[in-house]
Write a structure and sequence with these properties.
With 328 residues, the protein is of the alpha/beta class. It has a 12-stranded mixed beta sheet with strand order 9-10-11-8-7-5-4-3-1-12-13-14. A two-stranded antiparallel sheet has the order 2-6. The chain binds S-adenosylmethionine and iron/sulfur cluster. S-adenosylmethionine (SAM) binds next to strand 4 and strand 7.
Amino acid sequence: MPKDSFGREIDYLRISLIDACNLRCVYCMPEHARFAPLKELLTPTQIEMVARAAVTVGYRKFRLTGGEPTLRPDLLEIVERLAAISGVGDLAMTTNAVSLPKLARRLKQAGLKRVNVHLDSLNAHTVGQQMKWATFEDIWAGIMAAEEAGLTPIKLNAVVAAGFNEGDVIDLARLTIERDWHVRFIELMPLGTGECARLSIQRYVSNIETRRRIEVALGRLIELPPASLADESRNYRLPNARGVIGFISPVSEPYCGNCNRMRLTADGKFHLCLLNDDELDVKAALMNGGGEEKVAQILLKAVALKPTGHHLLQGRSTKDRLMHQLGG
Ligand code: SAM
Ligand code: SF4
């Protein structure tokens, strides 16, 4: 198992397939964002090569993300290639679910295990304001399609933003009473130096506040033991509920000490920590015919260079990359 210089086991690779998206969530990307041309993105063969190299050094857990991964025209091929690698234990995807009604069943057949779906509110007006260009109905239809296709357990990710959806957390949390879903509330993080970063700072809501709001409305939450040390979500259950409520609190309760993640950007860089700019290029090695062994060497170097953690409380984050380029 690859260990970094602080003794953390880094065995989870999040693969961003594309930086483009069909939505414009206000904290993630500006309306007129510019995207890398498709021809500059890693090909399915190159992504498979990186995943094979990762498996040889001990990675078992993989997640596809973006941007919106379902916008990749070759998504099914990528899933098939990764699912066929022996040693890939877990293959999941984070998505806004808009394309799942037409894709969910084929993704399952291709070997995808489960999806995390991004949905900030059950209120159609709030969804339209916060997750611009989305409709609640489209995302909900995507979640239903994922459940029907067996892309389970379903996890929902809701980013909480003041003045948008901070009151809607109660209805989202209530979903867990009847459904065995895992609804997770995420604190806003500022990335980059533009309007999304400013909004993420101005509209930040602490998960202490979100939890209090849920408990006032729905009753005391029962704390659950962590699924694993590296689980970034602190998990709870409402009395007699089928599902789980989680809080992901990178700002109020950083979990960097237990980080197990490496990120691969769509343009072929290992991005060492979500909230820092440090990267190592792997695409050049792939283009120059470097095989699995060379990629594994670069990956181990990336692990060794992983920073201890983020510096959000000192006012520092990424300068070069926004969330849609990294995948969360
Ligand atoms: N498009 C997919 C989606 O929305 O799930 C995958 C990519 S998106 C960048 C991954 C996750 O990042 C989403 O679940 C979203 O909630 C989260 N996210 C985006 N911008 C964020 C921000 N500024 N702070 C915290 N989470 C953010
Ligand atoms: Fe798109 Fe996901 Fe970013 Fe929203 S959070 S704009 S759905 S990439």
